[in-house]
Amino acid sequence: MIGETGGQELRTVQAADGSGAADTGTYCDVRVLTEALAEPLGPEDQTVQSMPDVSPTKWHRAHTTWFFETFVLEKFAPQLPPFDPTYRMLFNSYYEGVGPRYPRTQRGAISRPGAVEVGEYRRAVDAKVVELLASPAGQDPELTGLIQLGLHHEQQHQELLVMDIKHVLSLNPLEPVYRPATAPATGVGGGVGWVDVDGGLVDAGHDGSGFCFDNETPRHRVYLEPFRLGDRLVTCAEWQAFVADGGYQRADLWLSDGWYAVQAQGWQAPLYWHRDGGRWVVHTLSGTRPVLDSEPVCHVSQYEADAYARWAGARLPTEFEWEHAACSAAVAPSRRFDLDALHPSPVTADAHGCLRQMFGECWQWTSSAYLPYPGFAAAPGAVGEYNGKFMSGQMVLRGSSAFTPPGHARATYRNFFPPQSRWPLTGVRLAYSP
Amino acid sequence: MIGETGGQELRTVQAADGSGAADTGTYCDVRVLTEALAEPLGPEDQTVQSMPDVSPTKWHRAHTTWFFETFVLEKFAPQLPPFDPTYRMLFNSYYEGVGPRYPRTQRGAISRPGAVEVGEYRRAVDAKVVELLASPAGQDPELTGLIQLGLHHEQQHQELLVMDIKHVLSLNPLEPVYRPATAPATGVGGGVGWVDVDGGLVDAGHDGSGFCFDNETPRHRVYLEPFRLGDRLVTCAEWQAFVADGGYQRADLWLSDGWYAVQAQGWQAPLYWHRDGGRWVVHTLSGTRPVLDSEPVCHVSQYEADAYARWAGARLPTEFEWEHAACSAAVAPSRRFDLDALHPSPVTADAHGCLRQMFGECWQWTSSAYLPYPGFAAAPGAVGEYNGKFMSGQMVLRGSSAFTPPGHARATYRNFFPPQSRWPLTGVRLAYSP
Amino acid sequence: MIGETGGQELRTVQAADGSGAADTGTYCDVRVLTEALAEPLGPEDQTVQSMPDVSPTKWHRAHTTWFFETFVLEKFAPQLPPFDPTYRMLFNSYYEGVGPRYPRTQRGAISRPGAVEVGEYRRAVDAKVVELLASPAGQDPELTGLIQLGLHHEQQHQELLVMDIKHVLSLNPLEPVYRPATAPATGVGGGVGWVDVDGGLVDAGHDGSGFCFDNETPRHRVYLEPFRLGDRLVTCAEWQAFVADGGYQRADLWLSDGWYAVQAQGWQAPLYWHRDGGRWVVHTLSGTRPVLDSEPVCHVSQYEADAYARWAGARLPTEFEWEHAACSAAVAPSRRFDLDALHPSPVTADAHGCLRQMFGECWQWTSSAYLPYPGFAAAPGAVGEYNGKFMSGQMVLRGSSAFTPPGHARATYRNFFPPQSRWPLTGVRLAYSP
Amino acid sequence: MIGETGGQELRTVQAADGSGAADTGTYCDVRVLTEALAEPLGPEDQTVQSMPDVSPTKWHRAHTTWFFETFVLEKFAPQLPPFDPTYRMLFNSYYEGVGPRYPRTQRGAISRPGAVEVGEYRRAVDAKVVELLASPAGQDPELTGLIQLGLHHEQQHQELLVMDIKHVLSLNPLEPVYRPATAPATGVGGGVGWVDVDGGLVDAGHDGSGFCFDNETPRHRVYLEPFRLGDRLVTCAEWQAFVADGGYQRADLWLSDGWYAVQAQGWQAPLYWHRDGGRWVVHTLSGTRPVLDSEPVCHVSQYEADAYARWAGARLPTEFEWEHAACSAAVAPSRRFDLDALHPSPVTADAHGCLRQMFGECWQWTSSAYLPYPGFAAAPGAVGEYNGKFMSGQMVLRGSSAFTPPGHARATYRNFFPPQSRWPLTGVRLAYSP
Question: Which residues of A touch B96 (CB under 8 A)?
Answer without folding.
Answer: 251-252, 259
